Amino acid sequence: xxxxxxxxxxxxxxxxxxxxxxxxxxxxxxxxxxxxxxxxxxxxxxxxxxxxxxxxxxxxxxxxxxxxxxxxxxxxxxxxxxxxxxxxxxxxxxxxxxxxxxxxxxxxxxxxxxxxxxxxxxxxxxxxxxxxxxxxxxxxxxxxxxxxxxxxxxxxxxxxxxxxxxxxxxxxxxxxxxxxxxxxxxxxxxxxxxxxxxxxxxxxxxxxxxxxxxxxxxxxxxxxxxxxxxxxxxxxxxxxxxxxxxxxxxxxxxxxxxxxxxxxxxxxxxxxxxxxxxxxxxxxxxxxxxxxxxxxxxxxxxxxxxxxxxxxxxxxxxxxxxxxxxxxxxxxxxx
Length: 335
Fold this sequence. Notes:
This protein is α/β, with parallel strands linked by helices. The protein is 27% helix and 22% strand. The chain has an 8-stranded mixed sheet, sandwiched between helices. The protein starts with 9 loop residues before the first strand and ends in an 8-residue tail after the last strand.
């Protein structure tokens, strides 16, 4: 999956995305939803970064902000050194060829009035890539690449199963030969029986097309299968990041420990020790002071209520090992 590279393909610095909350007769501003609250990330070429967290933690908003489908409130998004957050419409149009997304719901992300051939061909038309004959040949080749056939080009989305529709969405995302693909929960709406097929296809296509993925999911077991590294997100912030196997073998943040412990395991002897998590996640409109996880954390001490822990290296757990392991917890070396 990951290869040797000298500099990141994608760098996210201090990214924030707030949504105003209004109410009352005159629509007075009541506050802000802190959907993404100061995220720092980097992704190397050819790498798959898994972005994990509960529903509502800001994962999808972060992915959309990276692609400028949502305008960031603050921060920088550097793609090959170019700041997407400040790009003009023309610059953004050019960048779109190298930045693509696979949407979560294959039932709503495909236009029901267009044939599959028209859907996959549309990016080529918009960006004026090749002539008609060349475009049709490209579409036919893409369909076969994702496990479908050229004979299906004249059919409409409703004639396909969920797994087939997601393959069509993948073909559309690959039409312009992008470098970075944001996969926003690409298998969560699919039957369990076809999830592994789509995941294996994505891994195969990554090698074939030299793709870089940001793979968004709430399912750690899925992310473990496809990711080189994992970033754990909670209430709009990254609380832990590191190589996949290290995150699973030596989690340093209490929230990560709780997520891993919640993964179903068939063998009772292989199950993780239960990690208690108290209550519900706080509202992103009024996040708690200090560490955002402290109201639910069984390891919390008084200092957690006032100190906002930075994302720092977990050196004591992994001395002399390669790959950076970071955690935002003042007790990370004790847990």
